[in-house]
Amino acid sequence: MIRAYKFLLRPTAGQAIAMGEMLRDHCSLYNGALQERRDAYRHPSRTSIRYGEQSAQLKEIRAFDPGRQGRWSFSSQQATLRRLDKAFASFFHRVMAGDAPGYPRFRGANWFDTVDFPRDGDGCRWDSTPHDAVTRVRFLGIGHARVNQHRPVTGRVKTVSVKREGRRWFVVLTAERDRPDPLPAAGSQVGIDLGIASFLTTSHGVHIPSPRHGRRAAAKLRAAQQALSRFPRCKARDRTRNHQRAVEKVAALHGRVRRQRLDHAHKTALLLVREHDFIAHEDLKIRNMSGTPEPKPDPWNPGSFLPNRAAAKAGLNRSIADAGWGVFLTILNAKAESAGREVMAVDPRNTSRMCPECGHIAKENRPTQEKFHCLVCGHQAHADKVGALNVLRAGLVRRDANQA
After folding, report:
1. Angle of CA points 119, 1, 178, to nearest 5°
2. Which CATH architecture does the domain made up of 189-214+254-403 adopt?
3. Pick from 135, 120, 116: nearest CA to 176
4. Please, are residues 195 and 183 in contact by the beta-carbon 8 Å criterion?
């Protein structure tokens, strides 16, 4: 089992400068490799360059520029080239699937914020001074940096990454550990229905309200973005001090909202995992749900369009993004795996329209957002609880079918 750990780094002023230079040099390597691939494809021969060929050039690059590329870990530079190779692999996969391709782009200095070390001990060393009371991590070309280790690392450290978020630095570890002992059986099964008004409703009738972190911070974020918009667009190195402060304020507000969403998702998932042995949820296609509506051309007025409720859909999309369903489901599956619980995703179709008593399916069974009233048997309940009950029932059926 692979688990990730993220700790705050406490570098000295000199180490922070060196880590910034490391990011810039790796960003330059990434952009150079991308440019080489573009030039090779634009050549009349249409040559394709892959990771192996670019990795073989690293030795010459390091010898040609020892002051910049030559002072960093060879393995971390290989990881940067693999990162570009994965971007191209994803690009070609989207092309074959018919999705929006998204050709790999050049990275600016502020958009390249992570350097990966694929193996502990190769260019980096976690907890390199165990005799000291302070945990430290050592990086080639930087030295021993202090780490604010707020929890123990269980297992053998596999990879180490350096990440910059604003003015703060973090170290991200992945550790391989044995599967932990499962939690004792709770004797309970639950289905959950994710929503906007209520973040989550269980089949037992428990409603967890939506925290709406993004909406609460909208006023401050709007003011910060308006203040930032008054500065002219320019490169990061040409920004004034006030311009840089405005950029950092917007980034800090977004970071605060992101951390609040993560905290809420962790606490909610932990509550479900501790109290239930089996958890069923809807297999939501969040990207499709948050898509923009297609324009409706007016057949009688060429060049004009009919109303398509784009403004209302934009508000719904903001609420879906603010809820953070995808992050929550990812965390729920990870915690369930560690605790020995079972999580099952089911088809969400008609879960809120089917009566849990008689099985009648009709759109009219749900006259309002919260009310469910079956037209056949007269069963009445909260619509979200009905959806959670149907999700649980479908999950149990699928689990029994898989076991058979």
Report:
1. 100
2. 2-Layer Sandwich (3.30)
3. 120
4. no
- CB neighbour class for 67 (10 Å; exposed up to 12, middle 13-18, buried from 19): exposed
Tokens describing residue 7: 């700790």
Where in the chain are the domains?
A: 2-176, 189-214+254-403
Q: Digits of tens for pLDDT over the chain (404 positions)?
A: 888 999 999 999 999 999 999 999 999 999 999 999 999 988 888 888 899 999 999 999 999 999 999 999 999 999 999 999 999 999 999 999 888 888 999 998 888 999 999 999 999 999 866 656 788 999 999 999 999 998 888 889 999 999 999 889 999 999 998 877 888 999 999 999 999 889 999 999 999 999 999 999 999 999 999 999 999 988 777 889 999 999 999 999 999 999 999 999 999 999 999 999 999 999 988 888 888 888 888 888 888 888 888 888 888 888 889 999 999 999 999 999 989 999 999 999 988 889 988 889 988 888 888 899 999 898 899 999 999 999 999 999 999 888 76
Q: Which residues of 104-115 are buried (b: 16+ CB within 10 A; e: fewer)?
A: beebeeeebbbb
**pTM score, whole prediction:** 0.85
Strand, helix or coil for residue 193: strand
* CA–CA distance, 337 with 178 (Å, rounded to integer): 12
Amino acid at residue number 239 = R
| 148 membership: H or E segment, kind and range | strand 143-148
Closest-CA residue to 26 (of 90, 108, 87, 102): 108
Tell me the backbone φ, ψ of residue 66, rounded to 5 degrees.
-70, -25
What's the per-residue H, E or C state across 39-86?
HHHHCCCCCCCCHHHHHHCHHHHHHHCCCCHHHCCHHHHHHHHHHHHH
Longest dimension (CA), the chain: 80
Tell me which H or E stretch contains 7.
strand 2-10
Positive or negative: CA dihedral 338, 341, 345, 350: negative
